[in-house]
Specification:
The complex is a heterotetramer. Chain B is mainly α. Helix content of chain B is 72%, strand content 0%. The longest helix of chain B is centred in the first third of the chain and has 37 residues. Chains in contact: A-B, A-C, B-C, B-D. The interface between B and C is large, with 33 and 40 residues.
Chain lengths: 529, 287, 309, 318
């Protein structure tokens, strides 16, 4: 009896404390505020210093403006540069700057800003962005000229990147290495107010902002007063946060959550074209993949349509070459496109001497066709890899999966321990071909371990010997076609970017301008009144 | 006849663990689990690796009594097969840990001196580190997979068995029968092999058995982090790892393997307690 | 005497830490992978890579790197993170409060509830009360932490919407992580308390107190609990490493910052200075915990005090 | 009469502490002890607990290595023996331990325990030989051979001590060191064990060193008596009826004749403070408690002198 009373007391006080806790819940969204979960690919930024950092997230685009902006169709549009002109020989670019632009700390933006900004890139990890600019000339307070050491048709792309958001020079020079950690000064629609590394970034509205690019509908200061960017490492946690009201906007919704989100009445979903593909590199130095027939057979075993439909429920698009659809260098000879052909795959394997064995695995000289299939410890890639494994099994290739963390897998590549891998990239420029297939980067990132004279020659032409955009496109197309003819990889899938938001708290424009979800859209977001 | 068999068996101390209701239920569960683990390839109703993307994330029903996962694979079959992975990894790891730990602990306890101090400093330090951190770092060094998981678990629990064995040996060394045996003219080998180790064995084995439960949890945790069994091999932890993203969509994918882990570990603990009682070594299983 | 003993033990930390620093350094550099891979960007050249490797001193011999690191540590400088680009000390200082907050609350919660449950189990021997507590202890010490965390999220955050799913924005975000870690801790404390009470209860002096006619509660609170506290304090002090580093899984599931998260993240990026720094911090915490445990034991138990004379 | 055991200047120093933070402290458990034992004699060693009796027993059997000194056993230099011959020699000198409860491995049956000496000494036996030997040894110590299959925990203390004696006798030793063999037994059982030991001595022509803190028992059982105080022999009584010459022996004898039988079995603490064995005074260790001590006693160490066959270490013998 005595014990019973004791326990009664215990349970009653436990209930009481739960009650106290329950009373303390804060209400979620407040006026003019929105909480945004960054996508998995944008986690882990360590500073908002665009010049020295190698990892920047969407919030950076809100703090800084760029000279030019890129649209979803990869075209370029004025922003802080109102117009520009490239000389016929490609050795000089002249930019007219917007008048009346001010940094968050009151500093005036003009040609001097650009002249002092470009040299800051020297000796940083981002120096390659301005490597072709020999010097910057101030023509007048609102006109600036880049004198080039070589033609650089890719200059506008570089200028539109987040890494070329323009920082306030006074603040940048005075803070040195500390710049970007607690203070970041730009001309953008929002000011940095709080940055807790790995956790969250809070930005507040720049009330003086009157210079959005033409990609935004709103041509004044942003509607939102405060935006909080949260870094949620686990995608399913972020999804649950959206469902429970912990966040208002979820950038980068995993495709498998889309059907459920679409079924929710209060959730809006925007799907935009992606900026990368998933693919399976084939290590050309590792037998049996030193045989081009086996490589081709392996690539043809991949059923891109099945992947798109059953794994990704039709969201995104099929990948049949190495580049994203919006890039013109992807417009290759249709004969070179890689698409599923089980019969041809099997025939090629037979030709290469790999005969079908009794247990469904091909054999040659008594050895089974068993190969290593590596991937990174990422739930989406792991899922894709397991489907690839099953598809390879259908043509008689036994692929054994190993899942590594991202540092270890790079080490495995460098040591040439790999055969097949499932990986993905996110880059909306044709120069990605050079990054993954250059003979100077064998192992990593050239996981295919591919190098031949012709590829190197075509690569050099595309990278440094093009003087105009059109020439650059043609050169990259030739490079791309040659790589495709060697069967160095199997394209798997072109993901879409999915953005979900809570319709009860925020409104987001239907059409997203820009290749990614960035400041031009953020200034148009509003809270539901 | 039956009573004669019973008498014979009940004379064998470990069998007395079955003399209580808890012992019978927990022990029976473990025996059933061992059978399932052993015969898993033959008794699973579906192929554990066969994908059926058209029937992914199906809720529990017929014929998939525990539903299907994101690849349309039968969760029930994978839970059954997972017992094989989880039990064999954990048991192998603990067996390694117990053997090496006994050797180290016995050497430290028997020889003493500087050797003992060095071993015990390292052991005490690793003992106070969380097992998951030790295992995570170890797997990061030698790469993921079942073999490295096994070694990682073995290393994580090494300290425990070294401490326990050393404590036993130190206690036994001061027993009169050890001195008496030396006085008969026994060699050190005779003393260690015939008297010290056999007397230290029972508590170490029982603690080892209890640790198999901890090993299963650690294997599950490593699997949850994606470092254990490689797909498509089912293990309880790895199943929950692919299930994390599915917490909301198809909770059965994580609930059932979790229940399997919890039930197994509880059975191991309950049966272990009965075993401790049956062998009357309660005072000795603490290090 | 206790003071002298404490100083002796404190001094021991120096040589042991040095040995540990070597082990940690070697472990970290045994890891496959390279932090520079996390810095280079699409478009940079192979030469950029070599320059970066030199910039962070990673082209030097291991011996030189260790020497540099340890001499920095001696001056209180934990070095500069390679990938995270901050002073390591800053990163630790930023994450430690989260660990301490979570660990401290879980510690308090599990100590108090564990003590109460342990006493309830002891006071209600051979009744359903004891069975209930024993069952609770069994569950608490066997259920995998990450699984419990997931179920809690599903139930309390998603279905009931009482607490946030993740993050560390305010104190409501602490409730579920504290409950998850505390659950295991309660089991440990309750078990140790119960066993300690049973053992102390058997001692002659307690029988004597009963014989003297003291009431049960008086004996319990004045004599039994103070004596039973010793093993509880000891076991908790020895587990400081678990409290700080063992929260890794819970931090991971709830997306919380903390020393464990920092370590796991740095481990993934091979950010050597951060991994080394946070492991060294954990090892120090473990050693200090052991020290506190030993000193507490010595201070409370005259037999041990005697032995150190 | 031949000398079986001759002990000269035997000392054992225990060192504790050391390492970086503990000062080294040493303790003389046995300090310059010399005596000899003739074949067939029973030599008693008495003293308060902690005086070094048990250490002396172990030194004599070389179960622990002495710091200095010399032991001759059957005309062999015991301390010079290499491990292998030493193990063989152990068959000749056995010990019966104080605590019969822990003297047998709990996992061994009585049969295994009694035949272990043969196994250890490499004597091969068939199963039936071992059975016969077990039966013989058990009957020699008055135990039923039906106990052979039992485990130690199934036996009484007296039975276990008999097993201990049987084990000691298995290898036909010449010398038996009895380390308080009856201290943990009931009075009635004690008497049985003592009479068993007497019977065995006569039958097997054994030599005993009998260690005890019970002076009356020693006087009853032994032929000559060594009295120890803080690691040293302070007096060697040549016979049981010799008069005590050392004040300490006298105090021991006085307390032994206490009319209260409960007190008779143990030596009651005397007045004065016993010096710490870690920190012995320069003079006679007993001086602080001695009724007749002088300044000389406190500064000068008395040596054991044998003027008339009755050695005593005292400046003022009674």
């Amino acid at each position: 009896m005595r014990n019973l009373t004791k326990l009664n007391l215990l349970s009653r006080s436990a209930m009481l404390s739960v009650g106290i806790i329950a009373m303390g819940f804060s209400s979620m969204a407040m006026a003019g505020e929105a909480t945004v979960a960054l996508p998995a690919s944008e986690l882990g930024a360590t500073s908002y210093d665009p010049i020295r950092s190698s990892n920047l997230n969407a919030a950076t685009s809100l703090i800084y403006d760029r000279l030019v902006e890129q649209d979803a169709d990869q075209s370029f549009h004025p922003h802080l540069a109102v117009s520009w002109e490239e000389s016929a020989d490609g050795l000089s670019w002249t930019f007219k700057l917007r008048d009346g632009v001010k940094f968050h700390d009151g500093e005036v933006f003009n040609a001097e800003t650009i002249a002092s900004w470009i040299p800051d890139f020297k000796d940083t990890e981002n120096a390659f962005l301005v490597a072709a600019i020999e010097k910057v000339e101030v023509v007048d307070p609102l006109t600036v000229r880049f004198v080039m050491s070589r033609p650089e048709p890719n200059l506008l792309y570089n200028l539109a990147s987040t890494f070329m958001g323009i920082p306030g020079q006074k603040s940048y020079d005075s803070l040195g290495e500390d710049y970007g950690v607690s203070t970041a000064v730009g001309t953008g629609p929002f000011k940095l107010t709080k940055f807790e590394i790995g956790l969250e970034t809070v930005v507040t509205r720049n009330d003086d902002y009157a210079w959005p690019s033409a990609l935004s509908t709103n041509q004044g200061a942003a509607h939102l007063e405060t935006v909080t960017f949260r870094e949620i490492p686990d995608q399913s946690t972020a999804f649950l946060e959206l469902k429970t009201g912990g966040i208002d906007v979820l950038m980068g919704v995993p495709t498998d959550f889309l059907p459920i989100l679409k079924a929710e009445e209060n959730v809006g979903v925007i799907t935009m074209a992606g900026t990368g593909i998933s693919y399976m590199p084939i290590n050309t130095t590792s037998a049996p993949f030193d045989d081009i027939k086996v490589r081709q057979a392996t690539a043809l075993a991949i059923n891109q349509k099945a992947i798109l439909e059953s794994v990704y429920k039709g969201v995104g698009s099929q990948a049949n070459h190495f580049l994203i659809d919006t890039l013109p260098a992807g417009d290759v000879n249709p004969k070179l496109l890689v698409s599923f052909d089980a019969a041809k795959s099997k025939a090629l394997l037979d030709e290469a001497g790999w005969a079908m064995g009794d247990d469904g695995v091909r054999m040659k000289d008594g050895a089974p066709l068993q190969v290593k299939l590596f991937t990174k410890n990422d739930s989406d890639l792991k899922r894709l890899t397991q489907v690839v494994q099953a598809q390879l099994k259908d043509v008689g290739i036994d692929a054994v999966i190993t899942v590594f963390d991202s540092s270890t897998i790079r080490d495995e590549y460098k040591k040439n321990n790999h055969q097949l891998a499932v990986r993905s990239y996110d880059w909306n420029n044709s120069d990605i071909l050079e990054w993954f297939f250059s003979g100077t980067r064998l192992g990593y990132p050239n996981v295919s371990m591919w190098t031949d004279e012709k590829s190197e020659m075509l690569k050099d032409a595309a990278m440094t010997k093009s003087s105009t955009s059109a020439e650059r496109i043609a050169n990259f197309k030739a490079y791309h076609e040659h790589l495709l003819s060697q069967h160095l990889f199997a394209p798997l899938y072109q993901p879409a970017q999915n953005i979900a938001f809570n319709k009860d708290t925020v409104t987001v424009p239907d059409a997203i301008r820009g290749p990614r979800f960035r400041s031009q859209t953020f200034v148009d977001i509003d809270v539901v009144k | 006849m039956t009573s004669a068999v019973w008498n014979k068996l009940s004379g064998f101390a470990p069998f007395r663990a079955f003399s209580s209701a808890i012992g019978i239920v927990a022990g029976g569960f473990l025996i059933l689990l061992l059978l399932v683990a052993f015969f898993a390839p033959w008794i699973t109703p579906f192929d554990v690796a066969a994908q059926n993307l058209a029937n992914a994330n199906a809720a529990p029903g017929w014929p998939h009594i525990m539903g299907t996962d994101e690849f349309g694979r039968d969760v029930f079959s994978r839970v059954l097969y997972g017992a094989r992975t989880s039990l064999s990894v954990s048991a192998t790891a603990i067996a390694i840990s117990v053997s090496v730990g006994m050797l180290l602990g016995a050497a430290a306890g028997y020889f003493g001196g500087l050797f003992e101090r060095a071993v015990m400093t390292v052991v005490d330090l690793t003992w106070s580190f969380p097992d998951i951190l030790i295992a995570l770092i170890f797997v990061a060094i030698i790469g993921p997979g079942l073999t490295s998981t096994t070694f990682a678990i073995a290393i994580a629990y090494l300290a425990q068995f070294t401490r326990l064995t050393r404590a036993q040996i130190v206690r036994l060394k001061s027993e009169t029968f050890v001195e008496a045996t030396i006085n008969l003219g026994a060699t050190p080998a005779h003393v260690v092999l015939r008297h010290l180790l056999p007397n230290a064995l029972a508590p170490v084995i029982v603690v080892g058995m209890l640790a198999v439960g901890d090993g299963i949890v650690l294997e599950a945790t490593l699997g949850f982090f994606g470092l254990g069994a490689q797909p498509p091999t089912p293990s309880w932890g790895a199943m929950m790892s692919s299930g994390t993203a599915q917490l909301f969509i198809s909770p059965w994918v994580i609930i059932y393997p979790g229940v399997a882990v919890a039930a197994t570990v509880i059975a191991v603990n309950l049966f272990g307690d009965e075993l401790v009682r049956a062998l009357d070594i309660r005072d000795r299983v603490r290090s | 005497m206790i003071l002298k003993y404490s100083i002796q033990r404190l001094l021991m930390i120096i040589p042991v830490s040095l040995a540990i620093s070597v082990v940690i350094f070697l472990i970290v550099h045994l890891l496959p992978g390279d932090p520079i891979d996390n810095l280079i960007r699409v478009g940079s050249s192979p030469e950029d890579r070599i320059a970066l490797t030199a910039k962070y001193g990673l082209d030097q011999s291991l011996f030189e790197q260790y020497f540099l690191w340890i001499s920095q540590i001696m001056t209180g400088d934990f070095g500069q993170a390679i990938v995270l680009r901050r002073p390591v000390a800053d990163l630790i200082a930023q994450n430690l409060p989260y660990s301490l907050q979570l660990g401290g609350l879980a510690f308090l919660f599990s100590s108090i509830v564990g003590l109460i449950l342990g006493i309830v189990a002891w006071a209600s021997q051979k009744t359903w009360g004891e069975q209930f507590v024993k069952g609770f202890i069994l569950l608490g010490s066997t259920v995998p932490g990450f699984w419990l965390a997931l179920l809690m999220i599903l139930f309390f955050a998603v279905n009931l919407g009482w607490f946030p799913v993740s993050g560390a924005r305010d104190w409501t975000a602490l409730v579920l992580p504290v409950l998850t870690i505390g659950f295991g801790g309660i089991a440990l404390v309750a078990r140790v308390t119960r066993v300690a009470l049973l053992e102390v209860g058997r001692e002659d002096f307690i029988t004597l107190l009963h014989a003297k006619g003291l009431s049960r509660p008086t004996i319990l609170f004045r004599h039994l609990i103070p004596h039973a506290l010793l093993p509880v304090v000891t076991i908790l002090a020895l587990r400081i490493g678990w409290i700080l580093g063992g929260a890794v899984t819970v931090e991971f599931v709830f997306g919380r910052p903390g020393l464990g998260s920092l370590l796991i993240r740095a481990l993934g990026q091979r950010d050597y200075p951060v991994v080394q720094g946070s492991l060294l911090m954990l090892a120090l915490a473990v050693m200090i915990g052991t020290l506190i445990g030993d000193i507490a034991q010595a201070a409370m138990d005259p037999r041990i005090r005697e032995a150190t004379k | 009469m031949t000398t079986l055991l001759d002990v000269r200047h035997l000392s054992k120093k225990f060192v504790s502490g050391g390492g970086p933070f503990r000062p080294v402290r040493s303790m003389h458990a046995v300090n310059d002890v010399s005596f000899s034992v003739d074949t067939g004699r029973v030599v008693g060693v008495v003293g308060e607990s902690g005086c070094g009796k048990s250490t002396l027993a172990r030194l004599v059997l070389r179960l622990i290595e002495p710091s200095s000194g010399d032991v001759q056993f059957e005309d062999l230099d015991l301390l010079a023996q290499k491990p292998k011959p030493m193990r063989a020699l152990r068959a000749r000198m056995q010990m019966v331990f104080q605590d019969p409860y822990s003297a047998i491995d709990p996992r061994y049956t009585i049969r295994n325990a009694v035949t272990e000496p043969f196994q250890v000494q490499g004597v091969r036996q068939t199963a039936s030989e071992a059975d016969d030997k077990t039966a013989e040894l058990l009957s020699m110590v008055g135990l039923s051979e039906q106990l052979a299959g039992s485990y130690p925990h199934q036996l009484s203390g007296g039975q276990k001590q008999r097993v201990g004696i049987a084990r000691a006798l298995a290898l036909n030793p010449a010398l038996l060191v009895l380390d308080e063999p009856t201290a943990s037994l009931d009075v009635s059982v004690q008497a049985q064990i003592i009479s068993l030991l007497e019977k065995l001595r006569d039958e097997l022509n054994l030599t005993y060193i009998f260690i005890s803190h019970d002076l009356s028992l020693v006087k009853y059982f032994c032929d000559e008596i060594l009295v120890m105080y803080l690691g040293r022999v302070v007096e060697a009584l040549p016979s049981t009826d010799a008069a005590a010459r050392h004040p300490y022996t006298r105090t021991l004898l006085d307390s032994t004749f206490d009319p209260d039988p409960k007190l008779r079995r143990t030596i009651e603490p005397l007045g004065g403070e016993v010096p710490s064995p870690f920190d012995l005074p320069p003079g006679c260790a007993f001086a602080a408690r001695c009724p007749v001590a002088t300044e000389k006693c406190r500064t000068e160490l008395p040596v054991l002198r044998a003027d008339d066959g009755h050695p005593v270490a005292c400046h003022h013998p009674l």
